[in-house]
């Protein structure tokens, strides 16, 4: 790949990459027939291959054509990101599925933040891509080499799991998918957000009532503290998320949770599981109405709950 950099600035190269980016499949096909080495070229700065560009832009036909002529679906760019990662980032589900069918490695980590394709799908809120990757993980060698549960709960360089990222970014559908596939609801981060944060801390920080509801329904502990001793309630108060704070207030009624969460719920047949989920959500909704109607009263600091710590310096960025 490195040998291609010397001629990446040629007119032919620029025209080729432009055709891939805009989805002109016939132009790409003709160019590759005339010069097969184009598939080994990279853009100068980001070191993007044609496979990366096709995946990021969702051009499934071009992607398929390149995969037929290339034996490596896991080529990396400047940041060690694979085409699968870029497809997951941009939510190009057809390309995600095509790359998975071609044997793309879901266990690779990028060099930006040490994240997998699963982290990226969760962070950017593409629940369909997330589900496709999880399905692939269940049916490939991942289960044997790593273990499915380990893959779902792998941390990035800051210790953030895909569930942490989805909760912080207010991706409630992704939170649901991850919890349904065994994500640990009370896992703590290393340095992401604030050291020792759980997904509930980060949902409180992001202000997503739906994510807070989902995490509580799966048994998230409202009293679990981060490394500075804060509970999620304090985080919600600090960031002015009143409705989230009302549900997280230790003096409020406890929410209903899944029975034996992560153990028996996934063993139910789909119909029974769906009925139980509806019943749970309806019961929680009724309980939540009572809590939210008393929001002003509940937002007063309860006994033995500390003032929120000043953690602005450790606020995670909303930009990748």
Write the layout of secondary structure elements.
Layout (H helix, E strand, L loop, with lengths): L10 H12 L2 H10 L15 H8 L2 H10 L13 H7 L3 H9 L15 H8 L2 H13 L2 H4 L2 H5 L9 H7 L3 H9 L18 H8 L2 H9 L14 H7 L3 H7 L21 H24 L1 H4 L22
Helix pairs in contact: 1-2, 1-3, 3-4, 3-5, 4-6, 5-6, 5-7, 6-8, 7-8, 7-11, 11-12, 11-13, 12-14, 13-14, 13-15, 15-16
What features would you describe in this structure?
This protein has 320 residues and is mostly helical. It has 18 helices and no strands. The chain has helices at residues 11-22, 25-34, 50-57, 60-69, 83-89, 93-101, 117-124, 127-139, 142-145, 148-152, 162-168, 172-180, 199-206, 209-217, 232-238, 242-248, 270-293, 295-298. The chain is elongated. The protein starts with 10 loop residues before the first helix and ends in a 22-residue tail after the last helix.
Notable characteristics:
320 residues, mainly alpha, disordered N terminus, disordered C terminus
Q: Compute the number of helices.
A: 18
Structural class by SSE content: mainly alpha
Strand content: under 5%
What is the mean pLDDT?
84
User: What is the rounded Rg?
Assistant: 23 Å
Question: Helix share of residues?
Answer: 40-55%
Order of helices and strands: HHHHHHHHHHHHHHHHHH
What is the total tally of β strands? 0
Q: Which consecutive residue ranges, at least 5 long each, have pLDDT under 50?
A: 1-8, 296-320
Shape: elongated
End-to-end separation: 26 Å
Describe the main β-sheet briefly. none
